[in-house]
Amino acid sequence: GAALAEADQQVASVCPYCGVGCQLTYHVSDNRIAHVEGRDGPANHGRLCVKGRYGFDYANHPQRLTVPLVRRADAPPKRGDAEMDPSRVMELFREASWDEALALAGGGLARLRDSHGKGALAGFGSAKGSNEEAYLFQKLVRTGFGSNNVDHCTRLCHASSVAALLEGIGSAAVSNPVRDVAKAEVVIVIGANPSVNHPVAATWIKNAVRGGTRLIVCDPRRSELSRLAHRYLQFTPDTDVALLNAMMHVIVAEDLVDRDFIAARTVGYAELERNVAAYSPELMAPICGVPAETIRYVARLYASSKASMILWGMGISQHVHGTDNARCLIALALMTGQIGRPGTGLHPLRGQNNVQGASDAGLIPMMYPDYQRVDNPAARARFERAWGVALDPRPGLTVVEVMHAITRGEVRGMYIMGENPAMSDPDANHARASLAALQHLVVQDIFLTETAYLADVILPASAFPEKTGSFTNTDRLVQMGRQALQPPGQARQDLWIIVEMAKRLGLDWRYSGPAEVFEEMRRTMPSIAGISWERLEREHAVTYPCLHEGDPGEAVVFTASFPRETGRARFVPADIIPADERPDADYPLVLITGRQLEHWHTGSMTRRSAVLDALEPDPVALVHPLDLAALGGRPGDVLTLESRRGRVALYARADDSSPRGAVFVPFCYYEAAINKLTNAALDPFGKIPEFKYCAVRATLGGTL
Ligand code: SF4
What we know:
Blueprint lengths: L1 H5 L2 E6 L8 E7 L2 E7 L11 H5 L14 E3 L17 H4 E3 L2 H19 L4 E4 L6 H15 L4 E2 L2 H4 L1 H11 L16 E5 L3 H4 L1 H12 L3 E5 L12 E3 L6 H14 L5 H7 E2 L1 H8 L4 H8 L3 H13 L3 E5 L1 H4 L4 H14 L9 E4 L6 H6 L6 E2 L3 E2 L3 H11 L11 H9 L5 E5 L3 H4 L3 H10 L2 E6 L11 E4 L8 E4 L4 E5 L12 H11 L9 H11 L8 H7 L1 E3 L25 E2 L18 E6 L15 H6 L4 E4 L1 H6 L7 E5 L4 E8 L7 E5 L12 E4 L6 E2 L3 E7 L4
Parallel strand pairs: 6-7, 6-16, 8-9, 8-12, 9-10, 11-22, 12-13, 16-17, 17-18, 23-27, 24-26
Antiparallel strand pairs: 1-2, 2-3, 4-5, 4-18, 14-15, 19-20, 20-21, 23-30, 24-27, 25-26, 25-30, 28-29
Helix pairs in contact: 4-22, 5-22, 5-23, 7-16, 10-13, 10-14, 10-16, 13-14, 19-21
Bound molecules: iron/sulfur cluster.
């Protein structure tokens, strides 16, 4: 009430957290957000979760970076194993003017490029930034650094899903929006915990269940949504392919396939059929821990319903066999014809607010904007014409590959905008040592993150409500985020910083603002050619593909064909590949990492939001009560977790949603950075690390 009365300005925008893309209204007073309300957007219809509603005050946090910082000449050498100590930051850095900081930041990168070649530099952009920021960042790397060494955290979340989707159906985005669950008879949610990570999407799923949709939840961890499930399949971690191939075996054996669909719209079915013949439910049941009869029942249900939809998350993608996992889901949909109609299809739930848009805009090392491959001569020629420079035909390095290239002395300088690899990369001790070994690191962020701590130049950027831009949600909905606040102190908007950096790298860039950048994007990205900035301003949200002005956009795609050369989708069979690191006598437990409802990714925003941090203030490990008792521990005890790569101490929480022998830890706590323990082994196709499986041991005690 009091806050309502105080607010004197209302700004229509979107939520800065997850890929659901809820529209909201910022109520602003005295350059502060007083409160937030849900708006009637296509994805949320007024609903918000705890993050969207209460996670806004990070923008006004006293730890905001407000002045450019330059590492002191007499600062001690950077050490990747040095824990960040914000109270001593001014011993390492000094304040600088923007002119000096940009000259040092851009000049240092230009020198490395000129003396060591174009491969000496790499850039990480951000899935939290706008489409326009992502587009300009990748353009800066490709035209200013001279290589395709540009990536972002999509590599850590759905890179394997994207690889499988591009290969199988020619498009990496979802086929149907989340809200289509209401039109589905059967919904499979696998390897995803929407109540925590896509909370408003979870509410639509719950509403659908109330309306009669049968929900099948498949997950090694029993999520909140499984309480509403018609069937809950708690399969053994790492056995996704066994489970899914067994389902396909049943569909083939019982002739539940859609022969017309397969004949008219796919290729490669015979090979898939041969492959799944070996995966009978009886053989797979002991491997995946699900009774054969349950596998049969769920397979029949999915195949024979009028409309079945699959939604999945990181539990599918973050494995060395993540691409194979996604290939199986695609094959399931294709062999049963459960795609191309309302209430069907494939929906990889995108994590960050703009991971879809950042990927679309080309913030990936093998693709230009709109997934045009850098090694395709015709695509390269198009972008060379559009950007007026010769481009490197070789795909660039991915997130984890960059860290190894630093160790080998190949990459020497980096520009990181709005990402925190010192916390988010697997084997974080190695990642931190790599970042510390860089000759020149420029970090653009709103807080002194663990990554910024290792920088040579820190450029103070703008928080989400301090700038205007477009953002693309998990449903392919391009939406407007509008500026509600002024950046504090000398902090500047990211688009301005990228343009100034480009100038220091010798590029003659002039952009008046996001509208001009978006208009350039439309000219190079056929999928959004029909979306004008003016239309976005007027309608707030437009779905792509939107090919020409006046095109309403397509919420459901692949209705008549798939965007591959032949117009047909392709089956790709998969066989069982075990996790890279299995438990053994020394490290007997499985570590699964993920997120919590109240915190977002590495925690740099939500841990500085008072309400959210009050709800979940301490680092926790979720351990099965019997495993905790076997250790002699009780809830609340300090536990040390250790892998071959690192160790952290955190509080034990008894949690019987995890299977015995598996420990779940959120990756948002800097004081117990769990990625020090995770394994950097990569899926060979998506180059995504295996965050969902590595071997650890737990002991009671330790120092927090
Ligand atoms: Fe924000 Fe996602 Fe929550 Fe919606 S569901 S309010 S987009 S965090």
